[in-house]
Structure formats: structure tokens, C-alpha cells
Queue: 4 jobs
Job 1
Amino acid sequence: MSLIESAIFIAWALAVVLFDSWRRLIPSSLALSGVFAALALAASRHSPFDLSFAQALLGLAVGGVALFPFYLLGMMGAADPKIFAALGAWCGPRALIGIWIAASLAAFVHALVLLARRRVVFALRDLPADASPAECRRATTPFGALHALKVRS
């Protein structure tokens, strides 16, 4: 694994973490740039995780399909499946299970912290009816950021 390819991945993952942590919104362009970078590096045999192009494509497909039902059920935002698909392209399909489990556990802890800080049972139900979209986003868990953080831990 080369330092340059690793730095590209780390910079992309850090951008995901920062956008999702600060704004609770991840631009689609960031997800797409991650996919394109991962596939380009895999195609040129410079993947930081030593993936072939076929493995990167399979990771992309598995990552995209795995979280899509949760988005359809309204349990997560549209960016989360996109970021998970991009992580699949970066890390391969085998890494996705560990990433998902660790991110889910971290999201659970984050939700407990939110509940403890607000001293309520259902954090979103206690928001005033006229709460701004930004206030509603702050009461959610940055799941995309937790996925991206898990890759390197």
C-alpha cells in the first residue's frame, strides 16, 4: 500500500466525517468522487487496500444494496447508502460487515449520549413543531461519519 493512495483515501474519509459531523449532510459529489477514486485506483492496481477492479465493483454493489432498504424505510438519509457503497469500492465487500457492525455500535452509543444529554426517551419527538431542519439534523446520528471512521480503527 502506497502512501499516496492511502492519503487519498484518508482525505476522502476525513471529508465524509467532517461534512456528516458538522452539517449532518454529505454532498452526493463527495460520495461519487469516493467511488470514482476507489475504482480508478483499483483499475490501475493502486488500491490502498490491494483490491482488484472486480473486488471494488463487487464492494460497490454490496455496499449500495445493503443499506438501501434502511433508506427506503426512512431510518437513514440518502447519503448513508452512497457512502457505504463508496466504502465498499474502497475496502471490498468483506470489510463491509465489520464496518457496519462497528458503526452501528458507535451509533448506538451516540444515540445514548444524545438521550442522556436531553434527558428524554425519544429525542426527535421532543423537538418543537417549528424546529428548523438544522435543529432536527443535530438530533440525529452522523452514521456516514461513523462508517468512515471505522475503516482506519
Job 2
Amino acid sequence: MVQINICEAEHDLLALIKSLENNANNEIILERNDEPVAKIIPFKDKPVKNKTSFLGAGKGQFKIPSEEELERMDMLYLL
């Protein structure tokens, strides 16, 4: 963990981010007037490579009502 003043962090932001990427630091605490105000932590989620289509993922989970069922539903809303 590194604690750094916000003014210093503005000038060293790129180096601070690189230290997070290289696992040199697990978090960075930003301070103003020696009081902690924010924490920078590494982003853990990996981006999805070769994103595939999810078409058909919900197959069998939804029922499309027939015309008759839709008409009955419309009549129920009118009551």
C-alpha cells in the first residue's frame, strides 16, 4: 500500500498506475491534508477475448404467447 498526496499523484499518475499493473502495489491511498480521501485499486476482471454471440442462450426459457392468448390478455387489461 502506498499513501501519496493528491498533488504528487497528479504528476506521478502514470507511474502509479504502472506499479498497480506490475503488482508492485495492491492499492494506492490518495490523501489531502494528510487525510485519506480516495483509494486506487487494480482492476481484476480480464477482458473477454473472442466474444461470441449469445443468440439462443435463452432457448426454452421464454414462451411467446399465441394470438388467442394475446387477445385474452388484452381483454383482462380492459376490465
Job 3
Amino acid sequence: MYTIELEDETALILNQLAMQQGKTVNEWIKGLAAQFVRIGNYSSKPQRPIGLAKDKGAPLPDAFFEPLPDELLAAFNGSES
């Protein structure tokens, strides 16, 4: 762990490089202490395939896709009529 003073873009780049290497960085910004720690890389997780559960559950009736009644739309929009 080390401390740098954030004054310019060079310090910011060095900070980002240090965090990519897994180091903890302490900074003083306008008299306030800040500590930056790399949490992890979540992009390596495999993505779930689209439509994984398309054949599971109850089918939706055709009425589900019809427009909502005017009274219900008015209630969602905050008017009473």
C-alpha cells in the first residue's frame, strides 16, 4: 500500500495501473483521505444464454399482450379519469 497526491492525469493513470495490479492506493484529495481497492473482475463469469427457460412455466394467454384499459392507464399516469 502506498500514498500518492492526485494533482494531474499522470497520477490518475499511475493509480489505475496500480489498482489493476491488485494494489491498494491511498489518496489525499482536497484534505480528504480516499482508499481505492480493486474488488475483482466479474467479466470472466459465463453469461446465461438467452431464452434458457422459454419452455418452462405456464404459457401466457393472448389477452396478456392486448392494450390496457383506459381507466388502468389513467391510474398509472396519476389521473383519476
Job 4
Amino acid sequence: MILSLSHKFLFIHVYKVAGTSIVRALGGADVRHLVRILAPENQGPFLASQGIDPRFMTMHDHSFAKDVQGVIDPALFKRLFKFGFVRNPWDLQLSLYRFNVEKPHVRNADLDFSSFENYILCTPDAPLPHGVQKRFLFDTDGTQVVDFVGRYENLKADFSEVCQRIGIESISLGHANATKHGPWASYYTREMFEHERKRCAVDIATFGYSDDPAAYGIK
């Protein structure tokens, strides 16, 4: 998450969607950096003077847009250019699996990481009502909170548009916190694909991803 007063934007960080690279590129503008150099007794009054509830300082880096909206003055929130990025749901799950394999200390103990197939199939295939990614960028009524949703699959062009919208020179993103794996479709059986199709139906429909396995070369 990045809140910039100087460039008037809010970045919502959906996990495993190039967010670390975006934070490295734009994070220097985050208001939290400015606040942390102030004396403790001045931090709250400064934030309040800008229309930001001091609770913002303790919010998680992967906070939902609707929650950030709740600690920012409506007039300020309206002026901000708010954006986030999403990723093909099947690709996202592979990246999450690889991340957890490489960093076991962050694992959810309720999931089976013995293989990617087990990881996918160990969860119920009932649709997640607010999606895995949609919940970051929409409120619980289904209204989009952010102004722009970029795609990981079109990262270079979409991030260039973000730079243009916030009035900075286009920055070339690195590939920070990347997980190592081949083309995602090669890791899926038809059963795994269908399982995730049901589970992530909300994200698939909201962000316009194909739910046809043939579109990805999966038989």
C-alpha cells in the first residue's frame, strides 16, 4: 500500500501481483515515510491536518481499499487516483504456492503444501463470495473503490498508464519478490483447473478472465 499526498494517489497492494516491484518504484512518495521522521507527538496532528486518521499508520500493507477509505477524509479520498493490479487466478495460485514453499514460516497451517495439486485440491471448491482479489479493490456491496485496475499480464503498459495518471515519468519496473516456476498452465490438470474455476468464479467474472481451459491449452 502507498498513500502519496505529493502525487495524490493510493496504491492497493494485492499480494503476488508485482506489488513489491511497484512499492520499490513508487514507495518513496508514501506519506508514512514523511510522518515517521516527525516527533511522535507531531505525527497524529499532522495526519489529522491532512485528512488522514492516525490509525492509517498501523494498517497492514495489504489492506483492502474499503478499509483505507474508512480512515481518509472523503474529500481527500475522492481526489486521490486509486489503483491496484490483478492477476490470472490460476497463475496467482501457483505463485502463492511457490512463495509458501520458499518461505514456509508464512504458511497457512490449514493448507497442504506437499504438492501443488494437493494445495489446490485441499480447499473447498465453493465460490468465494468476495473473490480472492476482488475483495481488495471493491467494497462488500460489489462497488469498485479504486479508479483503475491494471493486469499483471499487461504490467508494463498498465503501469506506464499509472505513471502518466499520477504525473511522473514512466518507470521501468524490476521483478522483486518473484517466484520461480514455468508457464502456469503446465502445472494444472483439468481437475485442478475446474476446482479453481469454481472457487475463484467471482474474480474470473469480475476481471474478465476466460474460464475455458482450452484458452490456456489445458485438456
